[in-house]
Amino acid sequence: MSIDIGIDDGARKQIGDGLARLLADTYTLYLKTHNFHWNVKGPMFNTLHLMFEQQYNELALAVDLVAERIRALDFPAPGSYAAFARLTSLKEEEGVPSAEDMIRILVKDQEAVVRTARSIFPVVDEAHDEPTADLLTQRMQVHEKTAWMLRSLLG
Asked: Where are the transmembrane segments (predicted)?
């Protein structure tokens, strides 16, 4: 059955592709944050262990919201490591960084997710896709606040 939600097929495709990149960034950040939660050590262990847990739990819910919006636009949501690796703008971490380096890495990655979300806005605005605009606004707000909170730990 064809979709007719008032957004032309070309714009829907561009939005779906942008959301696929956002999904890949979000899932990659989820994995990295969960990894850091498991492996953090040092004097800030308890603070960071708990903070990272809150962050990866929020990201786990976010991937579902982004994937469901992709589906509502009638496109398949990417769902494999290979697809996420191809689509993400984030760099995978090798080894276990220091606690302070974990914070710095996550700040950069949170900001990268904001940039990915922001990059989708022109086509979303032009298509009058308010549901996607609302989702992007909420995601940017969360990631900007999380980046600020992480940055604050560095003094």
From this structure: none
What's the pLDDT score for residue 126?
Answer: 97
Interatomic CA distance for residues 1 and 114, integer angstroms:
34
Would you say 24 and 84 are in contact if contact means Cβ atoms under 8 Å apart?
yes
Domain boundaries, the chain: 22-153
**CATH number assigned to the domain with residue range 22-153, chosen from the 4 options 3.40.50.300, 1.20.1260.10, 1.10.10.10, 1.10.260.40:** 1.20.1260.10
Q: Which residues contact 52 (CB under 8 A, 6 or more apart)?
A: 33, 34, 36, 37, 40, 102
| 133 vs 124: CA distance, rounded Å | 6
**pLDDT < 70 positions in the chain:** none
| pLDDT tens digits along 79-112 | 999 999 999 999 988 899 999 999 999 999 999 9
DSSP per residue, 79-125? -SHHHHHHH--SPPP-S---HHHHHHHHHHHHHHHHHHHHHHHHHHH
